[in-house]
Amino acid sequence: MTSSELRPTTSPPAEEYRHELYPYRDREEFLEGTLGFIREALEGGEAVIVAVPGHKASLLRSELSADGAVHYVDTTKVARHPGRLIGAWREWINEHAAQGRPVRGIGESAWEDARSQAEREELRHHEWLLNKAFAAGPAWWLLCPYDTSGERPTLAQMSRCHPAIRTAGRSEPSTTYDPRAPFDFTPLTPSCDPHEEFTYTSADLSVLREKIAACAAELGLGGRRLRELSLAATEVASNSVRHGGGQGVLRTWNEDRRLVCEFRDAGHIEDPLVGRSRPERTQIGGRGLWLVHQLCDLVEMRSTPDEGTTIRLHMDLPA
After folding, report:
1. 3-state secondary structure the chain
2. What is the mean pLDDT of residues 124-132?
């Protein structure tokens, strides 16, 4: 059966957040699953938000009439920044939920553009965090197409991030979904050698910035990008001093054509979503880490009561 011959099997609108994985192998399977999901929604009077790579959006546009019920969002600024994706989804969902219609979403992470193991792990970490981010509402339904070919996490790993899996137009609970705390779920890869190491306190923040600037200069990073890194590093190091026992340890190294600055301290961050959504005007705390996600090309954060907190800032180096 071709994609144009699909007939939707109507499901009721989501009464809570639903998060489904849709594995597919090729173009035809991608269209079969996503078009069936969209047509289900349209038959039920639901709005649909599509956030997929540009060429996948073009495939869907060519198969669907332009009646305004399917909204395509530009993911250019957030696609390769997993720390910005949850905030973007909140804004997209709030915009369309305000119209009083149930909402479905189709979101495919930019696996094809991920250049490193760290990026792939952060995209997978993001998939898990979506469950926590929307557990308290609003009610909507997110389908995550997942190409099982190429260099990316295995299907088994992705199944652990999604409470449900969609196959042949039907949704079934994932028997391998892992509800554990996400900070334990995706440990960081070992730091690269050689690396520089510096222990800092509140009196050493200017020295810390100088050490990062010296490392950046050796790797050709300067100008606006260095100023952004310096601002982000100051924010993270200040948090280490304030909440991590009065001191922290900085490590810097070059990995996959990126300058990596790692900050370790003895503190514990209880909320794994901190910094991932735009702060409210009345919000206390979390503003600095939101800024860090906006300034850096990749941010990795892990924190447990036993091992403390590790935050890594990645900045792309000049070609």
Report:
1. CCHHHCCCCCCCCCCCCEEEEEEECCHHHHHHHHHHHHHHHHHCCCEEEEECCHHHHHHHHHHCCCCCCEEECCCCCCCCCHHHHHHHHHHHHHHHHCCCCCEEEEECCCHHHCCCHHHHHHHHHHHHHHHHHCCCCCCCEEEEEEECCCCCCCHHHHHCCCCEEEECCEEEECCCCCCCCHHHHCCCCCCCCCCEEEEECHHHHHHHHHHHHHHHHHCCCCHHHHHHHHHHHHHHHHHHHHHCCCCEEEEEEEECCEEEEEEEECCCCCCCCCCCCCCCCCCCCCHHHHHHHHHCCEEEEEEECCCEEEEEEEEECCC
2. 95
